[in-house]
Amino acid sequence: MDADAANGAFYLEQVTIIDDAEDQYRYEEVSIADEGSAQDADEDLDFAVRSLQELSEDVQATVRRQGVGEKPPVTRQLEAIDDFVRNFLFRMGMSRTLDCFQSEWYELQEKEQLGKAEQGTVSDVYIQNQELHDKLTSLHRDLAKFQDATRQTQDMLVTLRKERDHHRMHHQRVLQEKNRLLNDLKRLQKHYASYEPALRSLREKYEAALKEKMLTKLERDRAVGQIAGLQATLHSLESGLEEPTPIIAGFHDATETGVEGPSQRRLREARQQGVAPADEPAKSSAARHPKDSEFPVDTRVNPLLGQVQKQPSDAMRSGSLRISQTLKAHEMPVSSMALHPRKEIIVTASDDQLWKMWSIPNGDIIMTGQGHTDWIGDCDFNPTGTNLATGGGDSTVKVWDFSQGACVLTLEGHGHAVWGCSWHSCGDFIASSSMDNSSKVWDVNSERCRQTLRGHTDSVNSVEFLPYSSTLLTSSADKTLSLWDARTGRCAQIFYGHLHSCNHGTFNLKGDTVVSCDSYGVIKVWDVRKGTATMTLNLGPHPANRLSFHPSGHVMAVASDDGCVRIVDLLTGHVETLSGHEDAVQAVVFSPDGDTLFSGGSDGTIRMWE
What we know:
Elements: H1 2-7, H2 45-66, H3 81-91, H4 95-110, H5 124-193, H6 195-239, H7 254-257, H8 262-273, H9 314-318, E1 323-328, E2 334-339, E3 345-350, E4 354-359, E5 365-370, E6 376-381, E7 387-392, E8 396-401, E9 406-412, E10 418-423, E11 429-434, E12 438-443, E13 448-454, E14 460-465, E15 471-476, E16 480-485, E17 490-496, E18 502-507, E19 513-518, E20 522-527, E21 532-538, E22 544-549, E23 555-560, E24 564-569, E25 575-579, E26 585-590, E27 597-601, E28 605-609
Antiparallel strand pairs: 1-28, 2-3, 3-4, 4-5, 6-7, 7-8, 8-9, 10-11, 11-12, 12-13, 14-15, 15-16, 16-17, 18-19, 19-20, 20-21, 22-23, 23-24, 24-25, 26-27, 27-28
Helix pairs in contact: 3-4
């Protein structure tokens, strides 16, 4: 269309094409071998010039092919006026105006009313303006993109600066903490270095004490041998037999020295009275005290067995108990709890050297006991509920009378702290366990130790009488549990199986099952008759501190060091967790009816679960 406009008007005329067959021109046939040959004899000057031109064009074509890819020049042809108007209207979306323009334009063109000026080309400035406008539009788009990218980069830069400042502050804080820890470490190293001389001194004292012990033992053996010899001499003198008097190595006879010793004086006094020392009652620890109590026979019936028939509630089995009341009992951890055998009263013992008596469920305080000089580890009511026994870190066991409101008896004899205490069902005996690796059976009436149970090789952490029996259960840090006969002080059975220190052990009401827990949260259920573990539960890794049987014997509560109380169904092995304490749970106990669970913890509170 641009070419037509440039060449002016055009017309249509009829032209007849003549067939070649009707043409009278004679064509001459030229062979292919003769075409373009430069060696013919009849070549002329024109053919030679034409051959040179072709050769020159071939050389130029070869040079262009071997060149660096030069682009052929582009000749811009000016746009016609009507095309410019059409393109403008089309670009602006003015389709109806475009139709009107084309109709009028072709009409004027048909009528030959358009001059050459109107049918010419658009000036170059319009095309340049259009190109500049297109470039400007493209630049505006690029500018908008770059502005968006700049804003995003600025936001990212601000974020990176904030993160840099945060990490810089964190780094400075870590450096400060590191320096503080290094200072603390140096101070601790200096502090522990000061203990080395004390440890050496204690080790030397210990070795000296061992030597003195061995020397004392040798002297005792010599004295026993001397007494035996003197008794034999006295017996021979009285029977008229002239037997030689034995002389103990290292000692001299009184006839040799001329000095009468205490043994000779005692023999002389005995001969004067006519009574031989061998006939006198021996003054030993086994000598009977006038006020000594008698152990009851083991054929009694346990009246608590009737509670075994009561089954635990569904809430107890499923672990859906809820806290019904919370009492802030002490400012320091609650170490033990004991329920009154007849009344709705609970006693708590604490590390603050106090025990307190509370009425339940209203939580009113009734009485406070103060007398221990160190923490209290355990407490227990006597069967009638009129007295309370407590044992603590001052190595004593104290008996408190509620009617007098004071401590009426202090039992001393343990070498280290007392961890546990338990009343006998008759109310005349108290068993205690201590860190000195022993347990003791105390007679309340004669106010003395009747038996010392030795056999554990580490601290004895708990002690408990089998209800209405003289059998004792102890758990120790030597990873064993032991059954003892309190009347004779002999060990009847030892339970092996724990791999860590045993914290507590207890009987069920039937007395045929024992459960124990250790410092790694492992629970073991033992068959007393077989002496083997029937069930093992791992509730660790936190220590299990104390256990309590439900009266039915089918459910057990575990006080854990992670601040939870766990309910264990011994029939299925199912374990439920009760959370509520803010610190480690130290004690748990079921009410006699089995409907309420009490727990005490290191947060100084006791909580009732129903």
